[in-house]
Amino acid sequence: MYRLHCFAQSGNAFKVAFMLRALDVPFDTVHVDFFKGISTDPAWREEHNDMGEVPILEDGALRLTQSGAILTYLAKKHGRFGGATENEQLEVLRWLLFDNHKFTSYFATYRFLKAFGKAAPDPAVMKFLLGRIEGAFNVVDKHLCSREYLVGDSPTIADFSLSGYRFFPVEESGIDVTERWPNIAAWGERLKGIPGWAAPYDVMPGEQLAPRW
After folding, report:
1. Which of 70, 86, 115, 175 is the most exposed place for a label (fewest CB within 10 A)?
2. How confident is the model over 147-172, as pLDDT tens digits?
């Protein structure tokens, strides 16, 4: 039985939850009370993850962190969603790196500051992040203009990874992807058709919070 340490607002954790559900394998969730600061506690970090982050996946005695590493591990272990050929596997890795460096990272930071930050976000910082978001999303939208999935003819962990924040309420970020990036929007709708898909707040523990700003 897998154990996924996560909380409802984490898109990075949702990437793994989506993958596990698509694999149709049983798993338990362990709530990490991020908003009460548990991940900053030295004892928690010593026991769970010295990086102070989720997701954390336990597979027996094995403990993995970082969504890209976890998705790669699951794809190899179960022989699914990793890419059909060596070239596809390298392309999947390319998109995982792009996602963690640009696509998810800027959007997740922007959303966090707007929806959950303790103080109103700095307009200059938000403007900078929005410019980075637009650049990354333009790349992905163009890539998806002539294909259904990011790599090959079927879903891969690249799709799970880049879709981590796609299914949260638009009010949390204030960015309407549907209007600005139609190919990304259509891709997200296709991903909802993968058996096992469900919205983040339906599969991960913790209550939904209203955006602050």
Report:
1. 86
2. 999 999 999 999 999 999 999 999 99
